[in-house]
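User: Okay, second chain of the day. Same drill as before: sequence in, structure tokens out.
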Amino acid sequence: MSNVIRFINEAKTLSNCEVYPASALPKLRSSHILPSDLEEFYKECGGMQLFNDSDFPYRVIPPIEINLANLEILGEEVEDDITKDYR
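Assistant: Same drill. Structure tokens below.
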């Protein structure tokens, strides 16, 4: 069993965590690659809410909410952004 699956299964046992049912893989542009561990995660679940009763709860977003970082941070795509050359 992979560490990703173990993590998801452990979160399911905790009363202060909620694991969302799997829904879909993130939609990516053809030039982007979904890392294998994220693909495994989203095939198994649709995100999660961790440690709801703590001062700092943590949320792993559902695949439908995944967006390009520049759009989220800058509000626009940057043409000469070197992160798009990642491979």
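The radius of gyration is 15 Å.

User: Thanks, on to the next one.
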